């Protein structure tokens, strides 16, 4: 075996990273064939390495593996590592990820029977099959959850700022990364929401919602939420309740797959109360402009409010 390859394998066995070792790994990963060095296939019996390992166990001393055995030792350890990597990868990549486009909505049914409606421009990561003591998913964006009841295995939704824990209930989670606030609104059952920044916990029941303020990452609960208005986006109905114009624009861009810009930045401080039922983008934008006493123009596919 070439001296250079011998050194690379020796360094590998000593836990030292080498560029050559990385290249050999990448090459095998892309094309799992026997390693070829200078057009010679490296093949050897593992009899010698087994004998040396047996001797090591008896002596319990430090040891040096002979130069002729480095190839076998490397092959043995690499195969062992690959086997462990395969087992780990099988577990790791049993998760699925679904991302909706702007203007798209979809329904996902999980292995436990829980149903999730995913709003536009949102991502849900979930396992193909739940294992362990909890049922956990990851959300970026907005989704309505109808969770199958299981007292033994709580259901947890992770966002970048909140953890929402339930047993079996229905609720809406809004956690778009480009919005300052995140919120959970409950329709049925009881939900526990925790800020991952402050570890503050709030329990939310039907007709209530909890809002995480992006400025201080604190939670605040609100009463008097009309349950029949929760997640109306699933029916292509948009409801805005004291919503800043900037969030309204972001919602319209996502749900209609359009580009709306606000030329007068002072307008972004205005708050809107509105209910738009299955209207085309042009009409919704026109109504928003009427509410804030503004106008808009459409140029090259971009709506500009001024």
How would you summarize this macromolecular structure in one to three sentences?
The protein is of the alpha+beta class. It has helices at residues 3-13, 19-30, 47-59, 70-92, 245-256, 281-292; strands at residues 36-37, 40-41, 95-99, 106-109, 115-118, 123-127, 135-146, 155-158, 162-166, 170-175, 182-188, 191-195, 201-204, 209-212, 219-222, 237-244, 259-262, 271-277, 296-299, 302-305. Strands 3, 4, 5, 6, 7, 8, 9, 10, 11, 12, 13, 14 and 15 form a 13-stranded mixed beta sheet that branches. A three-stranded mixed beta sheet has the order 17-20-19.
What would you note in describing this structure?
The chain is built from six helices and 20 strands. The model is unreliable at 32-46, 60-65 and 82-93 (pLDDT under 50). With 306 residues, it is α+β, with helices and mostly antiparallel strands. The strands form four sheets. Strands 3, 4, 5, 6, 7, 8, 9, 10, 11, 12, 13, 14 and 15 form a 13-stranded mixed β-sheet that branches.
Which fold name fills CATH's third level, the topology of the largest domain? Answer: Jelly Rolls
Radius of gyration: 29 Å
CATH architecture of the largest domain: Sandwich
Structural class: alpha+beta
Number of E-state strands:
20
Discrete helix count: 6
Tally of distinct domains: 3
Q: In whole angstroms, how far apart are the ends?
A: 74 Å
- Return the string of H and E elements: HHEEHHEEEEEEEEEEEEEEHEEHEE
Shape: globular
Q: Write down the overall mean pLDDT.
A: 81
According to CATH, what is the class of the largest domain? Mainly Beta
- Determine the strand fraction and express it as a percent band: 25-35%
Major sheet: 13 strands, mixed
* Percentage of residues in helical conformation: 25-40%
Stretches where pLDDT is under 50 for at least 5 consecutive residues are 32-46, 60-65, 82-93
């Amino acid at each position: 075996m070439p001296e250079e390859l011998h050194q690379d394998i020796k360094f590998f066995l000593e836990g030292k990273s080498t560029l050559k070792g990385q290249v050999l790994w990448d090459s095998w990963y892309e094309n799992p064939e026997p390693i070829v060095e200078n057009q010679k296939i490296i093949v050897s019996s593992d009899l010698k390495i087994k004998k040396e390992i047996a001797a090591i166990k008896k002596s319990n001393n430090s040891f040096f593996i002979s130069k002729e055995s480095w190839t076998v030792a490397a092959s043995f350890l690499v195969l062992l590592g690959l086997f462990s990597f395969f087992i780990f990868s099988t577990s790791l990549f049993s998760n699925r990820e679904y991302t909706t486009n702007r203007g798209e909505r979809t329904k996902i049914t999980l292995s436990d029977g829980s149903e999730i409606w995913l709003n536009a421009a949102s991502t849900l990561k979930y396992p193909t099959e739940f294992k362990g003591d909890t049922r956990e998913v990851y959300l970026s964006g907005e989704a309505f959850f109808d969770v199958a009841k299981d007292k033994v295995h709580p259901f947890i939704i992770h966002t970048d700022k909140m953890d929402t824990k339930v047993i079996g209930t229905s609720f809406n989670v809004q956690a778009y990364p480009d919005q300052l606030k995140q919120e959970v609104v409950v329709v049925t059952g009881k939900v526990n929401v925790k800020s991952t920044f402050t570890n503050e916990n709030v329990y939310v029941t039907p007709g209530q919602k909890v809002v995480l303020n992006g400025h201080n990452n604190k939670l605040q609960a609100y009463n008097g939420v009309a349950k029949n208005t929760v997640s109306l986006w699933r029916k292509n109905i948009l409801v805005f309740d004291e919503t800043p114009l900037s969030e309204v624009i972001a919602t319209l861009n996502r749900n209609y797959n359009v580009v709306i810009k606000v030329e007068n930045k002072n307008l972004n401080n205005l708050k809107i109360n509105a209910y738009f039922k299955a209207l085309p983008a042009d009409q919704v934008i026109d109504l928003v402009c009427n509410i804030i006493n503004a106008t808009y123009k459409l140029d090259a596919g971009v709506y500009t409010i001024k």
